[in-house]
What we know:
By secondary structure, the chain is an all-alpha fold.
Amino acid sequence: MDRQVERRQLERNLPNTLALSFFQVFLVIMPIAVPFFQSKGLDMQEVFLLQALFATVVLVTEVPSGYLADLLGRKWTLLVGSVASGVGNSLLVFADGFWGLALFEIALGVAHSLVSGADIAMLYDSEASLGRPEGEQRQVVGRLYSMRTFSEAAAGVVCSVLMLGSMEWVVYAQAMVGWLPLLLALRLVEPPVARLEQAGHLRNMGLIWRHLLTHSTVLRLTFLALAIWSLTTFYAVWLIQELWQQQGVGLEWFGYLWAALTAVAALSGRWAHVAEARLGTSTVLVLVGLLPVFGYIALDVFGTAGAFLASASFFLARGVGLVVFQDALNRRVPGTFRATANSLASFGFRGAFVVTGPLVGWVLDLWGMSTTLWLLAGATLAIFVGLIVPLLLAARTQRVAVEAV
């Protein structure tokens, strides 16, 4: 009977963790984030600097939080992260000026780092403890990503509805929604998996790094792709809103446009494994590598309607790419340090953004949108040639070796 109760509790981990992740990223403020920050006196360079601050906080706390999730448990980490999320979103009500908004970003950075890695580890470990087939375990990455992005789409619609009242309505709604993840975290149970030893922390980190960097070429390049390739679509998230303003799109439409774009990401993430199975890994890697290049060029060349279609290319690439890369990473690391491995990948991504984010904002303020888009197109093409192509070749070589055996 006890085992039946434990099994039912573990089965509830899946919907509860997915719902927690849904509300964790239910950011109704996101579709109007740039105009909102500007209404508080920030220019575009400060907007990117604010995001670099968020990335710095995540950079500092990401790996320790993932390590704590492997050391002390997933539920404990998700609980603390949910509290930080509630506090951070509540701070938004009182934020004013750069430093007021900085406190909001700092709190959200801590929350993100605690939840990121722990949620996917909770899902993978719960599914493994229930004895699910490997095929079903692989689907949790796509389900988690699509849940997060559907949340962003729903938040976009809610944002536009609330904007019929005022921007303050959006802020107050964000503050209230920010506490919902805590209610869901309380319902989780810790899956029965082996944890890292609580002694020899340097030895543990050395073991994790060696596995990520020496286990296989595919794992090493996948880890680097999550850290570096992810930048190619992330910059577009912050440039698109500024482009809409330059094109004269009304703020009341931002939420609907954002909802449509994030729905593209959600659907592409949900069906990423189907696309990979039918088109092949090589074709998928080429698409996710080159779509952002096309997107940046098309944003500059086309008008409002064409630019929206170009924007969809980033979200399509992001949905498929992140799911394929994250699944490839998680299938190649043991559950003992899965949360830490995911946190290390996020650490690399945030670190790269800290270095380059303010530079993109500076280029945008100094040289304008057109030059910025073309420079990003060139940088994205370089990432494709220097990282995605070698990963494609390594994956093909590994597949041929397996077939030969």
